[in-house]
Amino acid sequence: MKITISLTIICFLSAFLFFGCSKADFLNQKPQKSLLIPNTLAHFQAMLDADDIMNGANQAGVTPQLGESGSDNFYLLDGEFNANLRPQMQNYYIWSESPYVGVTVADYAYPYEAVLYANTVLEGIKGLERNGQNREQYDNIVGQALFHRAHMFYQLAQVFAPAYNPDTENAEPGIFLRKRADINEKLTRATVEETYEQIIDDLINSVPLLDTKPLYKTRPSKQAAYALLARTFLAMRDYETAKRYADSCLAIQSELHDFNLVNTSVNSPFQGTGFTHAINQEIIFFSAMLSATSQGFPTTFSYSLIDSALYASYHENDLRRQVFFSERVSGHRFRGSYSFRGRTHYFSGLAVDEILLTRAECNARLGSIDEALADLRRLLLARWDEDASFVPYEGLDDQETLSLILDERRKELLYRGLRWTDLRRMNQEGYNVTINRKINGQAYTLPPNDPRWTWPLPPEVVIR
Q1: How much is the pLDDT for 29?
Q2: DSSP letters of 232-296?
């Protein structure tokens, strides 16, 4: 049953209706006409079950697309750039220093809307009694809200805050850490250090409160919290801690989907109804990036083309060549999103393949080469044509192993909103990755550690 929630109890939300949903139908049913003030655990759970807001399960998505739009996995032809992109989206593609020209910056607004929901739950639930009968449900709801807030803070920090640098004090401006449901709260911009401290605190506090595995993939779980902690510490280049949380995550569930079972004859191999598609076993937590199609981002399937060198790097027996890409006269396009909505809706959540690659990278950096290659072999065996023999990698030194894993990380995790963060941390370590574009005869370059690796806040944001 759906629950329609009117937040008239909170003055600043009196104009909005919050819809909870059944996880099985993803908002397909019509909401009830009766309005309920959120004053029970069921109401607060329903708020967190608003998949469109918290997970981006509708066509709009929720997590930022800016990093993916600025990354090096794709390119645009002049005709597509000129005909299909609004000026603001063109600015995203060429890393303009002043990219915003009148279109709402959904990359900023949508995540903070989810933060508002989480904060509303965290404040409102304090008015309910926690007792022996409801303690487990009460704690789980608090844990879910903490996870959602941390998830959105993490996503915002990847585009609107400088990359975390363990070699500095990280005193640069980070993001606004909204921890109350009062939108009139006066805030100062947190530092990068304070931003990551808050993300980690929320996640660590959520772990003992959450179920080990979720009832639905759109709900946070203990495994999801471990996975997001691994992702966060990887972004911070704390590889030992990232490995520890990756271990904890994969100890709960580490099953991969065999790509030999994927039907490559359909337009979107992982599309399904709800989470009935087979890739569900690999997904730990579902979220989706802001929709490239409905909002006109440069990464839109119908006109973004995969970097030709990237496509050529897949071995002929690597099934990802067929599963991830569709061939067009002009080049190859990405269609392999883990989203149940298909190729127009890019998955940005947490999955086993990402955490397996995170652990492999951490092991390589920590000198555990055999363990790193074992995880990589597990992944590739699930992606390899069963009729062709897979030759395992052997006899590699530390740097060769790390380079191999970083290459496979790019090939496995493209269009998930991860490449931008990976490039920022890699450039801190001296990889010196420069991204080049050429549009209408003009060259555009994003050199390593350029200030444009951090996107500016929207002009309407008041900075105190």
Answers
A1: 32
A2: HHHHTT-HHHHHHHHHHHHHH------GGG--TTSSSTT--STT-SGGGGGEEE--BBPPHHHHT
